[in-house]
Write a structure and sequence with these properties.
About 50% of the residues lie in helices and about 15% in strands. It is of the alpha/beta class. The chain has a single domain, classed as P-loop containing nucleotide triphosphate hydrolases (Rossmann fold, 3-Layer(aba) Sandwich), CATH 3.40.50.300. Strand 5 and strand 6 form a beta hairpin. Helix 2 packs across helix 3. It is globular and about 45 Å long. The structure holds adenosine monophosphate. Adenosine monophosphate binds next to helix 2 and helix 3.
C-alpha cells in the first residue's frame, strides 16, 4: 500500500506517518529525513542538497527523484511505504506515478493535513528534533514537550531546532513554495479519488495523533 502524507510544513505529517508506520509496519520514507541524514554524514548527496535545504528551497529533481526511486526498491518497502515529503510538485507526482506503474503499484491513499497558517508558523518555531538520526523523534516545546528540557525521552540524545525552522526567511520561503508548487497536488490526487483531507488544529483539539489513530482504524 502506498500512502502519501500531504500538507504544509509543521502540520504534523511526520508525526502521523511515524505513528502509522509503527502500527502497520509500512516504512516511513521522509525525503527531508534522508537529506538531513546525508547532510550530517557529509555524503555527496548531503553536500549537494544542503544549500537548497538551508535556504528553504526545493532540492532539484535530478537529486530527489532517483533517491526516492532507489528507496522504493528496498526490501522493507515491498508491501508499500508511507511517503512523507514526496511528491512536492506535480512533476514529482507524475514521476512517482510512472515509477509505481513500472513496479505494478499505485498511490492508494493521500492524507492531506490542513492547519491554520498562524499555527503552522508557531509550530515550526517551537519544533525540536532529536539529533540521533536513528531516532529523529520530533517534539513541540509547547504542545508535546520532552520530559527533560532539550533531551529526547526515547533515546536520551540532545534535541535541537532544525536550521530551516529557526530562520524566518527560510520558513516563509518554504510556505510560499508549498502554496505555489505543492498545494496543486491536492486537486491532482482529489481527481484520482484517493484524497482524504484532515484538519489538524489546537482550535478544534485535533492533533496529529488523533488523525493517526483514525487512519490506523481505517486501515485495519
Ligand atoms: P521536510 O523535512 O519535509 O520539511 O523537508 C526539508 C527540506 O528538504 C525541504 O525544505 C526541501 O528543501 C527538501 N526536500 C524534502 N523533500 C523534498 C522533495 N520532495 N523535493 C525537493 N526538496 C525536498
Amino acid at each position: 500500500m502506498i500512502i502519501i502524507m500531504l500538507g504544509a510544513q509543521g502540520t504534523g505529517k511526520g508525526t502521523v506517518a511515524g505513528i502509522v508506520s509503527k502500527e502497520t509496519g509500512l516504512p516511513q520514507v521522509s525525503t527531508g529525513d534522508i537529506f538531513r541524514k546525508n547532510i550530517s554524514e557529509k555524503t555527496e548527496l548531503g553536500i549537494a542538497a544542503d544549500k537548497y535545504i538551508s535556504s528553504g528551497n526545493l532540492v532539484p529533481d535530478e537529486i530527489t527523484v532517483p533517491m526516492v526511486k532507489d528507496r522504493l526498491t528496498w526490501e522493507d518497502a515491498k508491501n508499500g511505504v508511507i511517503l512523507d515529503g514526496f511528491p512536492r510538485t506535480i512533476e514529482q507526482a507524475e514521476k512517482l506515478d510512472k515509477m509505481l506503474e513500472e513496479m505494478g503499484q499505485k498511490v492508494d491513499l493521500v492524507v492531506n493535513l490542513v492547519t491554520p497558517r498562524e499555527e503552522i508558523i508557531d509550530r515550526m518555531l517551537t519544533r525540536r528534533v532529536c539529533t540521533n538520526q536513528d531516532c529523529k523523534t520530533t517534539y513541540n516545546i509547547k504542545l508535546s514537550p520532552p520530559k527533560v528540557e532539550g533531551i529526547c525521552d526515547k533515546c536520551g540524545s540532545q534535541l535541537k531546532q532544525r536550521e530551516d525552522d529557526s530562520d524566518p526567511e527560510a520558513i516563509n520561503r518554504r510556505l510560499e513554495i508549498y502554496e505555489e508548487k505543492t498545494s496543486p497536488l491536492v486537486e491532482y490526487y482529489d481527481k484520482k479519488g484517493v484524497l482524504s483531507t484532515e484538519k489538524v488544529s489546537v482550535s478544534i483539539n485535533r492533533m496529529g495523533i488523533d488523525v493517526a489513530n483514525d487512519l490506523i482504524e481505517k486501515l485495519r
